[in-house]
Write a structure and sequence with these properties.
Radius of gyration: 17 Å
CATH topology: Rossmann fold
Number of domains: 1
Helix content: 10-25%
Shape: globular
Length: about 250
């Protein structure tokens, strides 16, 4: 084992006869560091890391390892995992070989889950934008909004009502199109001011969550998760749990 992942293994109890699926959780911030991924006293986990570890432990179906080191993405280390989760920002200090390993891992059938600012990552690496489905392009709203659940058959969204209310930072995206992803949730434009100067999408189409295939791999992304209070919500926690299980091919 390498880097931070070697020190923090959370999820299933030790002693299981068969190796449980593993999710590599990366909260490396090369740009803005969100409060929810800031470790209060390293190596103590952040709010997000602890929440995901608790979900893994409670589900009994997989385990998570926490990573913040570029070495964790070396091909030999990635081969130990079944899915990767990013809550990241900026141009991460992965080597060219590390980036290629990540893209190859997902394309070959690995899962990828992107949280909030995962779309504000690797803006200079077009293949990453292709993998995740689009890039962050400002957040015009940080307020209470209504979210429309467009697909209530997908494992990570079937527990939601047709619409729900949440207070969070809401993104818009560039290099993004419904032609490239399958939208799960979107912003109810009636709950915000779409004439604000920071609104750039002429089509006024603001997705909140989607999924797609990348080669043989499964990719899930949701832009919610900026605020501490969002991680306290049982419905959002269940969404992330089912998204990780989906990425692992468990549901």
């Amino acid at each position: 084992m390498r880097g931070a992942a070697a020190a923090l293994v959370l999820g299933l109890a030790a002693g299981c006869a068969q190796r449980a699926p593993r999710v590599l959780v990366c909260t490396l911030s090369a740009g803005f560091e969100h409060e929810v991924v800031r470790r209060p006293s390293p190596p103590a986990p952040s709010i997000v890391e602890q929440a995901l570890a608790d979900l893994a432990g409670g589900s009994g179906g997989f385990e998570v390892e926490l990573a913040r080191e570029p070495a964790d993405f070396e091909p030999g280390n990635l081969a130990r995992f079944d899915a990767v989760l990013f809550y990241t920002t900026g141009e991460l200090p992965l080597s060219g070989a590390g980036r290629a390993a990540l893209f190859g891992f997902v394309s070959a059938g690995g899962g990828f889950v992107g949280v909030h600012s995962a779309t504000d990552t690797f803006h200079d690496v077009p293949e990453y934008g292709e993998l995740i489905g689009g890039y962050f392009d400002l957040h015009p709203w940080h307020q209470e909004v209504n979210v429309k659940v467009e697909d209530r058959n997908f494992p990570a969204t079937r527990h939601f009502p047709p619409t729900f209310t949440i207070t969070d930072e809401i993104y818009q995206f560039k290099n993004w199109s419904r032609d490239r992803v399958k939208v799960l949730m979107s912003l109810d434009n009636n709950s915000v001011d779409v004439t604000k100067k920071d609104v750039r999408r002429a089509d006024k189409d603001f997705a909140v969550a989607w999924y797609r295939q990348y080669g043989k791999g499964r990719v899930f992304y949701c832009s919610l998760g900026h605020r501490n209070s969002v991680w306290d919500r049982p419905d959002i926690q269940k969404m992330w749990l089912e998204a990780m299980r989906w990425a692992l091919g468990q549901n």
